[in-house]
Amino acid sequence: MVDVEGCRIGIGIVIRDSTVYVMASNLQVINPAFKAQAAETIAIFRGIQFGRDCGLTPYILELDVAVVVKRINKGSHLDSASGVILLDISSLISEMNGMRIDHVPR
Predict the structure, then answer these.
(1) Superfamily name with CATH number, domain 2-103
(2) How far apart are CA 82 and CA 43, in angstroms?
(3) Ranges for the RNase H type-1 domain (predicted)?
(4) How crowded is residue 52: how many other Cβ atoms within 10 Å of its Cβ?
């Protein structure tokens, strides 16, 4: 959700199990000073943190942002405006054995 007049961007997080049962959900608001790709990258980071904090480690994270998925999986963080956030995502993923990130089309 983007609220241009109120200067807010909403992040929706839904964690499901393998049978598609909703285990947890959350809505967060972030600063809209970011470009779209940076905001999506922050949403990914917050989603991984939320799952970890709930004790619901996401072993397969499905995202519709192909560029971000590629950068995370290839480790190409430094050549991106979101490099620091991508590095934080990679650090979180390394703490969670067996976790993987896949791209799914919108």
Answers:
(1) Ribonuclease H-like superfamily/Ribonuclease H (3.30.420.10)
(2) 12
(3) 10-106
(4) 15
